[in-house]
Specification:
Elements lengths: L12 E7 L8 E7 L17 H14 L2 E7 L1 H7 L1 H15 L6 E5 L11 E4 L7 H24 L5 H4 L5 H10 L23
Parallel strand pairs: 1-4, 4-5
Antiparallel strand pairs: 1-2, 2-3
Helix pairs in contact: 1-4, 2-3
Length: 202
């Protein structure tokens, strides 16, 4: 099934998506993308369907051809204060604010959203597999977050973020148990399964 170019014809529409909601470490990232009405490219699909290399290729195409795009993040300390759902919405708000062109409508991946100013929005479950602008946003959010986690892994190699990107793999949790949590870990998350106890917060 090919992705739709837009929901509302003749309207400046931004697709929005986030990456990293289910991670134990690192910020949650979000992107907002406004594409030309006639945009199409075989690499711009749901980011989960692309290899890491293809996502990087697709990112370059999106950044070159989008009318406007922006990426934003909410850091672990903020996530711990406002919870991950609100942090995801905040990251999207920051991305929308970063657009050089003000959208007239928003397409949001998922089933919930906090309104942004007075811009009308539509929530689309699995929107990254339905609309090009959301797919583009998913690619930007994912690749920028991956870049952040790979850079963080240079300072904290024990957590294996280069491969797990902060997600709760067995190796990641084992490293938390052995070495404690880092500055990049979300302290409000269940970092270790009960009843395992380690030197959780160092």
């Amino acid at each position: 099934m090919s992705l739709k170019p837009f929901l509302n014809k003749g309207v400046i529409e931004a697709g929005c998506d986030e990456a990293g909601r289910g991670c134990l470490a690192g910020p949650v990232f979000a992107a907002a993308v406004i594409l030309p009405m006639d945009f199409e490219h075989p690499l711009v699909v749901d980011s989960k369907k692309l290899s890491e290399g293809k996502r990087i290729e697709a990112r370059a195409i999106i950044e070159e051809e989008a009318i406007s795009w922006a990426v934003a993040q909410v850091d672990p300390k903020e996530i711990d204060k406002i919870n991950i759902l609100n942090a995801s919405f905040l990251a999207m708000h920051r991305a929308i604010e970063g657009l050089k062109v003000r959208p007239e409508a928003l397409l949001i991946d998922g089933n919930r959203f906090n309104p942004f100013e007075d811009i009308p929005f539509e929530c689309v479950v699995k929107g990254d597999a339905k609309f090009l602008s959301i797919a583009a946003a998913s690619i930007l959010a994912k690749t920028y977050r991956d870049d952040f986690m790979k850079a963080a892994a240079e300072d904290y190699p024990v957590y294996e973020w280069k491969s797990n990107k902060g997600y709760p793999t067995a190796a990641h949790r084992k490293a938390i148990q052995l070495h404690g949590a880092s500055i990049h870990h979300r302290r409000s998350f269940r970092l270790l399964p009960d009843p395992v106890q380690g030197k959780l917060f160092s």
